[in-house]
Amino acid sequence: MKRDAGTYGGCLVSMAGAAGALWLWGASDRTQRHLGNGFENNGQDFGAVLTELPLVFLAGAVVPAVVWGLGAWLLGRRRRPQPSQFHA
Questions:
Q1: Which UniProt key words apply to this protein (predicted)?
Q2: Which residues, other chains included, contact 62 with Cβ-Cβ below 8 Å and sequence gap of 6+?
Q3: Domain range holding 56?
């Protein structure tokens, strides 16, 4: 059950990271300018959407999942019982 909870937590963190990255990317002034919110649609460039959007989504999903997995691995490693140095 612990392993499932850790997996579900990692998936939730990954989804939240992807949604947060997309939101921050979409709210930035640079993105708004490329999407046509500049003066009279000056600088409108939909190529930015096609190139940046997939990368932002992947980075937002992968980075939190890697950090979550690294933390889970380190915590699991720390909790393992160490073998005794003394033999009977």
A1: Membrane, Transmembrane, Transmembrane helix
A2: 14
A3: 25-69
